[in-house]
Design a protein that fits this description.
By secondary structure, the protein is an alpha/beta fold. It contains twelve helices and 19 strands. The strands form five sheets. The chain has a seven-stranded mixed beta sheet, sandwiched between helices. It has a six-stranded parallel beta sheet with strand order 16-15-14-17-18-19, with helices on both faces. Helix 9 links the parallel strand 15 and strand 16. The longest helix is centred in the last third of the chain and has 22 residues.
Length: 448
Amino acid sequence: MRAVILVGGKGTRLGSVTSQLPKPLVPVNGKALLDRQLDQLHRYGIDDVTLLASHLSEQVDAHVEARTAFLPRVRVHREDAPLGTAGGLHEIADELTDPFLLVYGDVLFDVDLRRLIAAHRAWSGLATLVVHPNDHPYDSDLVEVDADSRITAVHSKPHAAGRYFHNLVNAGMYVLSPRILDFIPQGLPTDFGRDIFPATFARERLFGYATPEYIKDMGTPDRLARVSAHEASGKVARWNLEHSRPAVFLDRDGVINESDGYINTPDKLRILPGVADAIHRLNDSDYLSVVITNQPVVARNLATMEGLDEIHRKLETVLGHSHAWLDGIFFCPHHPDGGFPGENVALKIDCACRKPKTGLIDQARARFNIDMARSYMVGDSARDILCGKAAGVATIGVRSGEGCRDVIDTSRPDFMFEDLPEAVQFILDRDHRAFMDVSEMTQPRESR
């Protein structure tokens, strides 16, 4: 597969850093961002790369020429005039006869490209957008997807006021069919996020490839410092889906938000004190934050699937304003007991996903390559604890919500804390102690 990297941006948000240096050549821990991108592409067998350049393109030319012994099929195309993230593709149209990968030139990433490309081929759409949650969704381009990952809405920034949105951000990496050129006007500055995707998702098949892997822009001094720190720590590489990561599985009602009977409207969802900061701390660690929740309000016909989705939009919006995100929300809409007036009969079944069964955790494990031996289940009821035990993860009960008052010996949690913030503090402290113990064990004997 061919790749196109957009390296023409001036990088004005980086200030003096890019006044004499094109943004893709800005060093991340002593190595140009462009080199890190090319290395990632090469790792997955993508060596046929075109760089679309404009600002200080002669420096990009010289830099690439110095690497030709390693990547002989990398070439620089200078745009006649800056044409945005999409407009310049017409200038290299003769190269784009097959599906190709497009990457923004200010993004540091470590993504299992084999999975991404396989997903695009299976979906056979016009475009596959890499999407993910981030810590600033309120000023990011967002998308919505259905159960089949097809994009159903595109929300370019700035967003409409007074609405809730899923934290699913356009990450600046796409696999595109060559047919995309049919939707890009020639010779005009055009942007994928602002112009092309909003105009095409309703009439063409666009898909969102949601991933928890590391893909972040370094377009401001603060973001450059953060991605540099993450790269130095090894986090960037560890988050690739080739590697398993631990997760903290979270019950929703009573753990994240107040337990207020059947929460069937967004106004009933109120985040508990300290929860957003606790989830933000998980986001800063290597732990995935994954909600695992029974939601029989749908089976009881107290809420529709669309209504439940709006509740989860509010949850993600509120957390996003506190720079926190959830890597996934997995819910069971079923209930095993039938025969009640007004119920949704189709959902009154004995399913495999309702806790204490492990179906939801199994779904998350398959999607995220989760290291179960290092993972936790946090809940406020016996069904949460039994689910975690059946899945083989450590279990934590909290005294918020139902307070685990229904537990008996067989459902007693491994650990018990007041609330989610206290549980997260324990998890991170325990993880740190385990790391220090391993570090101590690996030291030379004479240095102990």
